[in-house]
Amino acid sequence: MVSNPERRAALVDAGVEVLAREGARGLTFRAVDAEAGVPVGTASNYFTGRADLLRQIDTRLHVRLAPDPAVVAELMTRPKDRSLVTSFMYDLMARATRDRTGYLALMELRLEATRRPELLASYTKSVRGDLEEAMEFHRTAGLPGGDESVAVLYLAMLGLLLEHLTLPGVLEGVLPGVGVPDGLVERIVATVLPEEVQAQGPDQAQGQGQGQEGRI
After folding, report:
1. CB neighbours (10 Å) of residue 196?
2. Rounded to 5 degrees, what are φ and ψ at 68?
3. pLDDT tens readout for residues 144-195
4. Distance (Å, rounded) from C-alpha 37 to C-alpha 32?
């Protein structure tokens, strides 16, 4: 296969655009070539097949949707309380909203994984790894709540992101006086963490990994 990292990255990003816009059925090498503005046949020189392209799209989205280390570092200077968890959820929502195409491609990957056993295995491992990393971050950072809280936050934010980025009208006004999405983010965190949990000491709050739910 051709080895040109910059060209490969451009083709993968083109694949993200096609996947988000056309769905998995529209993700052909010819479509990727057209999106990237390269000669027909270029993508076939970089990927062994659609499954290979889908796996590399998954890897690329892991980077595109990951928290900014500088943002995480700044947030971690704040008190380790419920408001900090809310700030991490705001950051998650902001990243998904900024890269809506990337998030829609993630949803398409989920659907395609139900049809392709080889993708199901790798994608399940990838997403499970993100969830476990979020749990580890929560523990080492000394944030209130535990693994169960992170799991419920994950599920609640997954639902909020899905609706907000696909059918935003579903949520508008559903709770009078609660803004979408920020107000709902606040309600989610307040519901999952109804009482403040004593934060751990600063010597236990050194974790600065991918942060809360790097992807969902």
Report:
1. 11
2. -75, 120
3. 999 999 999 999 999 999 999 999 999 999 999 999 999 999 999 999 999 7
4. 8
